[in-house]
Write a structure and sequence with these properties.
heterodimer, A: mainly beta, six-stranded mixed beta sheet, five-stranded antiparallel beta sheet, globular, B: mainly beta, seven-stranded mixed beta sheet, four-stranded antiparallel beta sheet, 11 strands
Amino acid sequence: SQQGEEDPQALSIQEGENATMNCSYKTSINNLQWYRQNSGRGLVHLILIRSNEREKHSGRLRVTLDTSKKSSSLLITASRAADTASYFCATGQNRDDKIIFGKGTRLHILP
Amino acid sequence: DGGITQSPKYLFRKEGQNVTLSCEQNLNHDAMYWYRQDPGQGLRLIYYSQIVNDFQKGDIAEGYSVSREKKESFPLTVTSAQKNPTAFYLCASSITLAGSTDTQYFGPGTRLTVL
C-alpha cells in the first residue's frame, strides 16, 4: 500500500540553487518523515514533522506540512554535490503502527 | 559503535535455493523491519517485528520468512517460492513499533541477485 507520492520523480539543479520536492498523501496522518538515500545505501532520517506542526527547520532543510491539502514539501537551500541522493517521504497513520514510504525523488546536483 | 548491520553486502543465489540475509542491531530497539527495494522504486514492507518471538506480515510477505529469537537479530529467508527475488533488501529498526513518532534506523542493505 502506497501512501506518500513524491513529486517530481527526478530533479536536476545547479550547485548552490535551492531544491524543492513535494509529497502528497491520501489519508490522515499522525506525522510525516523525510529520509535520504545515497545510491546503494540504506536510508537516513532527515526530519519529522507532526500533524499539528506547519513548518520545521534543520540546518539547510526546511519542511512544511499542509494537512488541509494533504501535502508536504522539503526544501534544501544552497545545494551541494553531497546532496545528490533520493529523498523519500514516509507517513505514520493514526490507525496503523507502520510508516509507509513513497517512491522517492531522485535529486542530482550539477557542478 | 551503535548501529544496525546487514550481511552480506552482495549475495548471489541460484534459482530454487533458499538464502538467508542477516540483520543485527545493538541499539536495544524493540521493533525491526525488512523492506524490499526495486530499481527506481520506494520501499515495500516484507515483515516486521515488535518484540522477540513475534512478527507480522507486511505488504509483500509471500515467498519470505523471518524469525525473531533474539532482540538484536531479525534474519530474513528468501525462499524458492519467491518468484522474483532479485532486489535490494533493507533492514531497519526503531525504538518501538509506532508509526506516530519513531524514527527508523537502516542498515546498509544486501543486494541479492538470482542467477
